[in-house]
Design a protein that fits this description.
373 residues, alpha/beta, Rossmann fold, 2 domains, eight-stranded mixed sheet, three-stranded parallel sheet, 16 helices, 43% helix, globular
């Protein structure tokens, strides 16, 4: 008899890359009966062999998502009546006990290391953050100890979970290898470096602009949502008009043609945020691996975990993301050594094909399910 699996998310969209396109579709392809419950008011549908079930409730804010949507999620959870439930958000941890009472098995998927990130949440009063961190850590420990398994993206989450659960798998967000995909052929013609993705302060765009001032001529091809106070701050800088070629938000299939094939390097300068434990870094951030898959040499943060890969694969240059001179020197080096830069791009692409891809990671997910079943 085919096991029935239900993934549940209160915060992510129905076409989320990790949840639907990687995990759910991989389980469906392996022969499981897979459903995905999502918080929206769209029609139910079948996508890639996965039954997407809407709660019929589209939260408009955190309170509605974390509190009011509970009853709608519970209704659909009961209706689906799966054998295994896979939960994707910390506000869904309350379902572990509820589902166990109904004789179900439960997996929790920790997309972030929430103990690390709470301290940086602007919407939580600073005076309360340390208290909430301690309270959440204890609550998480108690619930994870009851779960039938857990999926993590960070080494320190894994270190915490294995102390209370003996069925934990680290499943990283490596790229899905597509048969129809072609890497970019980097170009020096437009004298540009490129970035496509989230345009937020943690990606050190202002430090990149400072480096562009030093270089005085290299362009920055930029794609993503340029909104909010930070977006306005970037646009107000003189370097934005002089050096930045903003392409708006692009569909994923256009990124290589518009950005990376017109650049001689891809930029992944992530700040030393809490999710990276300072200079250690993490292997769950997708931008680093997306640039490698694009076939462009990397200019990336000198995180320990990233530097190990860059040095081994010879696919880029690591720098301090807050040192414009280091960034400028890396750009200059790649510009002045075009054949080496091209080889770095090829090396990065080959490393994705050989090692750092979803086909490798999904085997760990399938193994977790086999053990639980």
């Amino acid at each position: 008899m085919t096991s029935k699996i239900c993934h549940v998310t209160s915060a992510h969209g129905r076409y989320d890359t990790r949840i639907l396109l990687k995990e759910c579709q991989s389980l469906a392809a392996a022969g499981y009966d897979v459903s995905l419950i999502v918080n929206d008011s769209k029609q139910d549908e079948v996508f890639g062999g996965v039954k997407i079930v809407s709660t019929g409730f589209a939260p408009g804010n955190r309170y509605e998502r974390m509190v009011l949507s509970r009853k709608y999620i519970k209704e659909q959870v009961v209706k689906v009546d799966a054998d295994i439930y896979h939960l994707h958000d910390p506000e869904l941890l309350y379902l572990v006990k509820f589902l166990h009472k109904r004789g179900k098995k439960v997996i929790f998927d920790s997309h972030e290391d929430y103990v690390s990130t709470i301290i940086e949440k602007d919407w939580i009063a600073k005076g309360l953050r340390k208290f909430i961190v301690k309270a959440y850590e204890k609550y998480e420990h108690d619930v994870i100890s009851m779960a039938d398994g857990a999926v993590v993206c960070y080494h320190w989450t894994q270190d915490r979970y294995v102390k209370c659960n003996d069925n934990v798998e680290m499943v990283l967000n490596f790229p899905v290898i597509r048969d129809d995909y072609k890497p970019a052929e980097i170009s020096f013609d437009e004298n540009a470096i490129g970035y496509a993705g989230g345009i937020s302060e943690q990606w050190c765009h202002e430090d990149i602009m400072e480096a562009l001032k030093i270089l005085n001529g290299v362009k920055y091809k930029l794609a993503g949502n340029l909104t909010g106070p930070y977006g306005e701050r970037l646009k107000s800088r003189s370097e934005f008009e002089r050096f930045v070629e903003y392409k708006g938000k692009l569909p994923q299939h256009e990124v290589n043609n518009v950005i990376y094939s017109k650049s001689f390097a891809g930029v992944a300068l992530l700040d030393y945020i809490s999710q990276c434990k300072g200079t250690i870094g993490n292997l769950s951030n997708t931008k680093f691996f997306e640039c490698m898959y694009a076939g462009v040499p990397l200019i990336c943060t000198d995180f320990k975990l990233w530097k190990e890969i860059v040095d081994e694969e010879k696919c880029g240059i690591c720098v301090n993301p807050h040192d414009p001179q280091q960034i400028a020197d890396a750009v200059s080096y790649l510009k002045e050594h075009p054949e080496e830069a091209r080889q770095m791009g090829i090396n990065g692409y080959n490393a994705i094909i050989d090692k750092y891809n979803w086909d490798k990671e999904k085997e760990k997910l399938l193994a977790l399910y086999s053990r639980i079943i």
